[in-house]
Specification:
alpha/beta, Aspartate Aminotransferase, domain 1, Aspartate Aminotransferase, domain 2, 2 domains, 7-stranded mixed sheet, 3-stranded antiparallel sheet, 12 strands, about 15% strand, binds pyridoxal-5'-phosphate
Length: about 375
């Protein structure tokens, strides 16, 4: 029997950060000690209140489905948190709780994109955006942002990419992999283009030097905001996220959620409520640590001969020009993993604009970062 795979699978690329991590796990099983700077995962534990609430809920029998849109308590807490952070009024009815931000992405693109439709994405970009668009039969259109402009997404360049088939503009601020934040003016100009904004705000709250994030909700009522608990609250494995959507989209999104996921995990939703109510201190402590680590990593990488033209303003990554050591970022990342036992993410994961670059995650301890820099220092001179 020949099993036929869907043709769209040809367009869906591997998530290279995961590929490096999975190879690193195999090396660890064979006894190697690897420093993981390849994946975007905080090394901190979640807020203790979130863990306690989750375990309490589990023991209390909170193990069934919830309303497909999430527990009312959590949707209210998310609406209140959004109001507090951005000063915008969000009705809890506009919130749909999802199994991670990734699931929210699938809901939005499934809603907006017909076969052959286009979605504009600023690049370098989070690797999964184009793959989600392909998954629903759409066509990602990449618009380049450049280090020289602080990775600003130029609204004129976006306008030039719009066609009658454009269904959404994806904005990520703070961004993965660059840590760049789009200004209020840029957000407003993008919203004024009259195409729905899909705004990935998962790294908001993790910003440095008093940087300020403008939510898409501040500039338009028609935004689809993707957000979640993975990064801000160090809750990656809980798989909890949410979507804030315009009122006109709520019913079809609810129908999609009912069919694709039924609901997010019930006891995990209780962890989300506790994180929002009691997690602020943990987030503040993490933000301070990430800021110190960012400096350590940027300084160290520059000394080693990497180019870091822009200091990241948010998230927990350093996107570094590695062309002094090789132009093929995938080979370079695997070579550094094998020889230095340091995991990094190849820049090509973030689109052709990232080729020759590497992304280093700064959500590792200062001791791990220092050790990684030392290990890299031993190997890199041989690669020049
Ligand atoms: C920009 C961005 N959006 C979304 C996600 C996925 O997050 P989640 O764990 O909530 O699915 C990530 C994970 O790295 C990310 O970097």
């Amino acid at each position: 029997m020949t099993t036929h795979f869907a043709a769209r699978m040809d367009a869906i690329q591997p998530f290279l950060a995961m590929e490096v991590m999975e190879r690193a796990f195999a090396m660890e099983r064979d006894g190697a000690s690897v420093i993981h700077l390849e994946i975007g995962e905080p090394d901190f534990p979640p807020p203790p209140a979130a863990v306690a609430a989750c375990s309490r809920a589990l023991f209390a029998g909170e193990t069934r489905y919830t309303d497909s849109r999430g527990l009312v308590e959590l949707r209210e807490a998310i609406a209140a948190d959004t109001r507090r952070r951005f000063g915008v009024s969000v009705d809890p009815e506009q919130v749909i709780v999802t199994s991670g931000t990734s699931a929210a992405m699938l809901l939005v693109f499934s809603l907006l994109v017909d076969s052959g439709d286009e979605v504009i994405i600023g690049t370098p970009h989070y690797p999964c955006y184009p793959n989600f668009v392909h998954e629903v039969g759409g066509c990602p259109i990449l618009v380049r942002s450049r280090a020289e402009d602080g990775y600003r997404l130029d609204p004129d360049a976006v306008r030039a990419a719009i066609t009658p088939r454009t269904r959404a503009i994806v904005v990520s601020s703070p961004a993965n992999p660059t840590g760049a934040i789009q200004s209020a003016e840029t957000m407003r100009a993008l919203a004024d283009l009259g195409i729905p904004i899909v705004s990935d705000e998962i790294y908001d709250g993790l910003v440095y030097d008093d940087a300020h994030v403008t939510s898409a909700l501040e500039v338009t009522d028609e935004a689809f905001v993707l957000d979640g608990f993975s990064k801000r609250y160090a809750m990656t494995g809980f798989r909890l996220g949410y979507l804030i959507a315009p009122r006109s989209a709520l019913r079809p999104l609810q129908v999609l959620q009912q069919n694709l996921f039924i609901s997010a995990n019930r006891f995990v939703q209780h962890a989300g409520v506790a994180a929002l109510r009691e997690g602020a201190e943990t987030v503040a402590a993490m933000r301070e640590a990430y800021s110190r680590r960012r400096t350590l990593l940027v300084d160290g990488l520059r000394k080693l001969g990497f180019g870091v033209p822009v200091l990241p303003q948010g998230a927990f990554y350093v996107f570094a020009d590695a062309r002094a050591f090789g132009s093929d970022s995938l080979s370079l990342a695997f070579e550094l993993l094998e020889r230095a036992r340091v995991g990094t993410c190849p820049g090509i994961d973030f689109g052709a604009a990232g080729e020759g670059w590497l992304r280093f995650c700064s959500a590792a301890s200062e001791a791990s970062i220092a050790e990684a820099l030392e290990r890299l220092g031993e190997v890199l001179p041989e690669l020049r």
